Amino acid sequence: MINPTPSELEVLNILWELQEANTQVVNDRLNLQRQVGYTTTLKTMQVMFEKGLLDRRKEGKSHVYFPLIQESVAKGNLLTKFVNNTFGGSASNLMMQLLDNKNVSQDEIAQIKTFLKEIEDKNHG
């Protein structure tokens, strides 16, 4: 499994949302976040194609790119790597750190409790 770089993840997030797009559309979206040159976006997407993260089809004079990696798989792999490297593999340490560093609303606490109850029921049901 190839883990995307931060720049590649930015491209993937756009393509997961749009499902497919040409380089110009992706570059325009990236430029809403930060200044990125067209040729930089093109090169990034070409490398992602070579790595097997994207596929493309010819449409007119340009290519339309689409992701080959599922969003849930990619983000799950990145999260697992982060938890392992940062929190020694402990999901509970990650959650405690996250909740301690953020003002959590009562609604979010209720959602978390519901989610934890569903996990508990699934694992012991």
Structural commentary:
The chain is mostly helical and 125 residues long. Strands 1-3-2 form a three-stranded antiparallel beta sheet. The longest helix is centred in the last third of the chain and has 19 residues.
- The stretches of 5 or more residues where confidence is low (pLDDT under 50) are none
Distance between the termini: 33 Å
Q: What is the strand tally?
A: 3
Indicate the mean pLDDT: 94
Structural class: mainly alpha
User: What helical percentage do the residues reach?
Assistant: 55-70%
Describe the protein's topology.
Layout: H1 6-18, E1 21-22, H2 23-33, H3 38-51, E2 54-59, E3 62-67, H4 71-87, H5 91-101, H6 106-124
Summarize it.
The chain has 125 residues and is mainly alpha-helical. The chain is 68% helix and 11% strand. Strand 2 (54-59) and strand 3 (62-67) form a beta hairpin.
List keywords for this structure.
11% strand, mainly alpha, 125 residues, three-stranded antiparallel beta sheet, 68% helix, 3 strands, elongated
